[in-house]
Design a protein that fits this description.
heterodimer, A: Immunoglobulin-like, 2 domains, 4-stranded antiparallel beta sheet, disordered C terminus, B: C8orf32 fold, 6-stranded antiparallel beta sheet, 6 helices
């Protein structure tokens, strides 16, 4: 029997607000800003700007430039980069990203933070910057709307980790040839951007209710073509018999999960199946009638299964009619009798008296 | 003995005729049926989904959270306290909270948090006290397995995908899920088979220093995979395996009571306690699967080490759900503060 362990101390991952508190020596808080620059080839550079500080008896203490803290942060570089990818995907492991600018000090940058939690952003001069290049195509954040026009959903990666946390400052910049078509955010009750220009949006969020959980941008990316589920191909056929919809699949493309969807009037059922290249599978659904079967990979429909008419056959042998049964039984009886009824024995051709005491037995 | 040739031939002739007649009859019923869109047959959904037995249990829950400002300056902070949630099988009321909350808010997972403004001087200690009344319904399904349906595309997309914790893309876990499910085509039977596998492959130990994720839960022992950890590892593994098989799943968290009247507490001294922790704390996390026509079904695998799918006892109080967001430690579920230490928390459960 079991119950769970719980620790009272709230560790790093639970720190909810605008800055991260780090339990190391010396104790410090990190102000964090995000800057995302979209490029016309469908990539985005995510820049993380951090500024360490502390609030103690003496008041605000700026820790930018403290070598041990910088070292502390550099050690966490890989983990921090993976955390940034949560802006675009549920699972960083599935995303193609790379660190293009290692964690370094940039004295000319400014980090904004509501240091004293009083609803005012303080400008902190200097930032420890990390740059990560993300291929948006490999994320689940991008969706094609039109020719070269895409909707990109950026999710608050802090909220993903803790519903009570939020990003306090996030900026979106449009790179060369990238056109911002429109933008919105959710929930609607959250506040809009503080700065909204043709090539730049800046949100400053002071608390969780005012901070959007999702930023939704529509961009024109002239040098980018979303290939979607390229490389994924499944051959599929479906048939219907005995109240079941049968689907046969063969994966002739990349390994991956596929959704097999039976859809029609009053039916929408999905089987999810993982198929390796060359692998086949047979699935069935309970279904009231013949319906369309679609094959999906993530959000792309690869096609429909080819319909195969199937003869509805009884799976059990039918009982013979009484007439047939009677004929067969009669036949069997006659065969049986044929072994009981002997023919008359043949008469001997000659009979001889071979002496007394003997006689022919009739 | 020699047979009578005439009778024998006649008998064989009759048997042959009978066979031909039977073949003709069978052929007559094998006329191909061209299936039309209007053809119907016996449908699973025309059958009853089975039965459910329910029993109601009401608890008064008195919760208290000790906050400490261990800074040398005054702090004004928002503290978040989780309120037990309302579900199909549970109703929850906030009777009182001191200090009074500013507002009750839902997070992305649908969990309710009370937001409380707390002002504290240097090194000051304060308590948040809350009283809830929770009526939960224990239930036990007698399923008619025949009627189980697979989910819609929308549900499958939302609740079967890979997440940072439920790593459905892990090849080892994919092979494991496929081998457990075998040729089974029924989602309820698959959910049960996986629950039984989990029960038979748990090496239970309290795991305070976890790094959450199904990929970290399993280890080979005698060429078989075993789950090492506590309820978190069990839930994460189960959810990942059923998600791989296309069954929507999520985690519910809250308390599992040892007795109807309980006092649970946790504080700084609890760190590193190991199994001792179980003597005074009942925090629990367990999976739920979504299978039509029943909806969300609780799955418990650590209560008596029996696979209970749709057999939900009075011992469970649900506080919230994990669907999108995950926490390494459960404390983050119950009470969270940015600048203040949650030094101690306690829950008194009083049956009504």
């Amino acid at each position: 029997m079991k119950k769970a362990i719980v620790i009272v101390l709230v560790l790093l991952i639970f720190i909810p607000l605008s800055a991260k508190e780090v339990r190391a020596q010396p104790r410090y808080i990190v102000a964090v800003n995000f800057r995302i620059t979209f490029k016309s080839d469908g990539t985005a550079i995510v820049s993380l700007l951090q500024h360490p500080f502390n609030i103690s008896k003496k008041g605000f203490e700026d820790l930018y430039g403290n070598p041990s803290i910088l070292q502390d942060m550099v050690v966490q570089e890989e983990r921090t980069a993976a955390g940034l990818v949560l802006l675009f995907a549920d699972n960083p492991e599935k995303v193609d990203y790379e660190i293009v600018g290692n964690m370094r000090m940039k004295d000319d940058e400014v980090v904004l933070c509501d240091v004293e939690n009083i609803g005012e952003m303080k400008e902190l001069k200097g930032a420890i910057v990390l740059d990560v290049l993300v291929h948006l195509e490999t994320t689940n954040a991008i969706e094609q709307l039109n020719d070269r026009i895409y909707r990109i959903r950026i999710t608050d990666c802090y909220t993903r980790l803790n519903p009570m946390s939020w990003i306090d400052v996030i900026e979106f910049r449009m790179g060369e040839d990238v056109q911002l078509i429109s933008y919105k955010w959710s929930p609607k009750s959250a506040k809009g951007p503080k700065i909204a220009e043709d090539d730049r949006l800046l949100w400053e969020n002071f608390n969780e209710p005012e901070a959007p959980n999702e930023y939704i941008l529509e961009l024109k990316l002239p040098r980018f073509e979303l290939k979607g589920a390229k490389g994924y191909e499944v051959m599929a056929s479906s048939s219907f018999s005995n109240g079941l919809l049968h689907v046969s699949l063969t994966n002739v493309g990349n390994d991956g999960f596929f959704y097999i969807r039976a859809v029609g009037d009053s039916i929408d059922q999905v089987r999810k199946v993982y198929l390796r290249k060359g692998e086949s599978a047979n699935l069935s659904f309970p279904a009231p009638k013949k319906v369309k079967v679609e094959i999906w990979h993530e959000s792309t429909m690869l096609g429909e299964a080819k319909w195969v008419e199937e003869v509805e056959r009884g799976t059990h042998l039918k009982s013979p009619s009484i007439t047939v049964l009677a004929v067969i039984v009669m036949g069997l009886v006659l065969i049986f009798l044929s072994f009981l009824v002997e023919k008359e024995p043949r008469k001997p051709e000659t009979i001889k008296d071979i002496g007394e005491g003997f006689g022919l037995v009739r | 003995m020699k047979p009578h040739l005439g009778l024998l031939l006649l008998g064989v002739l009759l048997v042959g005729m009978g066979g031909l007649l039977y073949f003709r009859e069978v052929k007559e019923v094998e006329i191909p049926v061209v299936l039309t869109g209007n053809q119907t047959s016996t449908m699973p959904w025309s059958e009853s989904p089975g039965k459910i037995e329910t029993y109601s249990h009401t608890y008064l829950i008195k919760a208290a959270f000790k906050l400490k400002n261990d800074r040398d300056v005054s702090v004004s902070d928002i503290v978040y306290v989780l309120v037990p949630m309302n579900t199909t099988h549970q109703t929850s009321k906030l009777i009182s909270m001191e200090p009074e909350p500013l507002v009750l808010e839902l997070d992305e997972n649908g969990n309710t948090y009370a937001k409380i403004r707390v002002e504290m001087g240097p090194n000051e200690v304060k308590w948040i006290n809350a009283t809830f009344e929770v009526t939960m319904e224990s239930y036990k399904y007698s399923f008619n397995t025949n009627v189980a349906l697979w989910p819609s595309l929308e549900m499958a997309r939302k609740y079967t995908t890979s997440t940072a914790v439920w790593t459905t893309e892990n090849e080892t876990l994919i092979e494991l899920a496929e081998s457990i499910a075998g040729d089974e085509d029924n989602p309820l039977n698959i959910a049960k088979k996986i629950a039984e596998w989990v029960v038979n492959h748990v090496e239970y130990s309290v795991n305070p220093n976890r790094s959450r994720g199904a990929s970290h839960c399993l280890t080979y022992k005698d060429s078989d995979l075993y789950i090492y950890g506590d309820c978190t590892e069990v839930a994460d593994t189960y959810i990942t395996l059923v998600r791989i098989m296309g069954i929507p799943a999520r985690a519910a968290f809250g308390m599992m009571l040892e007795e109807p009247k309980e006092y649970y507490w946790l504080n700084e001294s609890s760190r590193g306690e190991g199994e001792e922790l179980l003597t005074h704390w009942g925090g629990h996390i367990w999976p739920q699967v979504y299978i039509e026509p029943w909806g969300w079904i609780d799955v418990e695998m650590l209560e008596g080490l029996i696979a209970r799918v749709g057999d939900y006892s009075w011992r469970h109080i649900i506080f919230g759900l994990e669907e999108k967001n995950f926490l390494e430690e459960e404390t983050g579920h119950f009470c969270v503060s940015m600048y203040l230490e949650v030094e101690h928390m306690e829950f008194r459960f009083i049956p009504q």
